[in-house]
Amino acid sequence: MTSLVDEISQKAHALPPEDRVKLAEELLATVYTVDDEVESAWDEEIKRRIGEIYTGTARLVPAEEVFAEARKLLK
């Protein structure tokens, strides 16, 4: 990293967590373009999944099971 990047990184690490998140989001927004159609589709998918959780139609899997399955697949 350049000395400027090192300096900015050091200062960013000193920020409170919520400010670091905001800064990260702002920086990422300058690198990645947002596709409104994709964002809208994800918003709808999230609403659908939340609705399934509230109505009890979703099959919820405990994190321990998910991680165990992931470890098994990675072996």
Distance between the termini: 35 Å
Number of helices: 4
Tally of structural domains: 1
- The radius of gyration is 19 Å
- The assigned structural class equals mainly alpha
How many DSSP E strands? 0
Give the fraction of residues assigned to helices.
Answer: over 70%
Q: Can you give the mean pLDDT?
A: 95
Shape assignment: extended
> Which regions are unreliable across 5 or more consecutive residues at pLDDT < 50?
none
**What composes the largest sheet?**
none
Strand content: under 5%
Reading the helices and strands in chain order gives HHHH
Polypeptide structure, described:
75% of the residues lie in helices and 0% in strands. With 75 residues, it is mainly alpha-helical. The chain has one domain (3-74). The longest helix has 20 residues, at 36-55. It is extended. The model has no long low-confidence stretch (mean pLDDT 95).
